[in-house]
């Protein structure tokens, strides 16, 4: 069981809290054990939107695998840099990180991490209206502007309000894989997005920004078995539609046929292996190609800007995906 501890400050923004909380709660509903806890210096916590929240005044025991999240609160730009949390709370946040745990913030929550000494020498971000203040009050930090979130040595800071959802989806992807993050995002009816300053999102996330359940079901199967030949008939059965309908909807939703999507997954995984020192031949076999020729062709094609082409025919993947390996 992983504990997600939300440290609440008076004036907390509801979406700063509710967005990440919903992500972890949804992931728990998909079978990943998360326990959400809410702590504060006082039991009653007024929110910026007028709703009073109830929190525990006692912190639970935390392990290195647990996460502490500080949601943002209403803070006017230029506000004096007075301590934003009690010294005891700041010490708890710092101690959790020192023990190997991960700490995160949404919006003005970055100031609490700064008070805990966790921004010194690290990259971070916050809401665009507060970035100048954060840089001024924490001069040893590097404030990254115009991004959704920044990670630096188990310190994850995000921009304002809804970006807390992106931060939490990133943490779910890091722990359980991008397919789980994509399913979590789909259940929440949000795009599975990544920070523009981070490495590019994988194909599992990049092609999930649609609302076609049939295509998502087919992608789930390809994601789980991308190294194996997959019959289009099996994909269509999993999606609950005909082969022709699946290919048409898949192409419209992702810009790829099912075969191209599977090849893109294989290529990404192979590139990761090659970057770690694996030979092209070994990487090709590891991701499901029978030899390295197809992998070499895909690598070459990925480096050449593609000319506009007509949409593929509805029967382009007529028998078996990855048959030409």
From TrEMBL:
InterPro entries linked: Class_I_gatase-like (IPR029062), DJ-1/PfpI (IPR002818), Homeodomain-like_sf (IPR009057), HTH_AraC (IPR018060), INH-QAR (IPR052158)
Alphabetically ordered keywords of this record: Transcription, Transcription regulation
Pfam families: DJ-1_PfpI, HTH_18
Alphabetized SUPFAM superfamilies for the sequence: Class I glutamine amidotransferase-like, Homeodomain-like
Residue intervals of the HTH araC/xylS-type domain: 216-297
Keyword tRNA-binding included in the entry's annotation: no
Protein's UniProt keywords contain Transcription: yes
Name the record gives this protein: GlxA family transcriptional regulator
Organism per entry: Actinomadura yumaensis
């Amino acid at each position: 069981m992983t504990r997600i501890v939300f440290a609440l400050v008076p004036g907390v923004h509801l979406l700063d809290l509710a967005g990440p909380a919903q992500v972890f709660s949804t992931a728990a509903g998909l079978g990943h054990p998360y326990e959400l806890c809410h702590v504060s210096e006082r039991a009653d916590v007024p929110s910026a939107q007028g709703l009073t929240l109830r929190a525990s005044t006692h912190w639970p025991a935390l392990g290195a695998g647990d996460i502490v999240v500080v949601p943002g609160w209403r803070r006017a730009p230029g506000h004096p840099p007075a301590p934003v949390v009690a010294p005891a709370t700041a010490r708890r946040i710092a101690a959790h990180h020192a023990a190997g745990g991960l700490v995160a913030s949404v919006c003005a929550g970055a100031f609490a991490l700064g008070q805990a000494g966790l921004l010194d020498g690290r990259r971070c971000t916050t809401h665009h209206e507060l970035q100048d203040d954060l840089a001024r009050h924490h001069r040893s930090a590097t404030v990254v502007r115009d991004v959704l979130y920044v990670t630096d040595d188990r310190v994850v800071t995000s921009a304002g309000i809804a970006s807390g959802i992106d931060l939490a989806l990133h943490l779910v992807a890091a722990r359980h894989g991008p397919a789980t993050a994509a399913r979590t995002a789909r259940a929440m009816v949000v795009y599975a997005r990544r920070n523009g300053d981070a490495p590019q999102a994988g194909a599992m996330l990049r092609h999930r920004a649609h609302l076609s359940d049939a295509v998502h079901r087919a992608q789930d199967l390809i994601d789980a078995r991308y190294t194996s030949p997959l019959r289009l008939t099996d994909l269509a059965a999993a999606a609950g539609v005909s082969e022709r309908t699946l290919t048409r909807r898949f192409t419209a939703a992702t810009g790829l046929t099912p075969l191209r999507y599977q090849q893109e997954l294989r290529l990404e995984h192979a590139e990761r292996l090659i970057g770690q020192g694996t030979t092209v031949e070994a990487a090709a076999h590891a991701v499901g190609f029978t030899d390295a020729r197809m992998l070499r062709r895909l690598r070459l094609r990925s480096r050449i800007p593609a000319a506009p082409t007509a949409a593929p025919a509805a029967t382009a993947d007529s028998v078996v995906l990855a048959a030409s390996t």
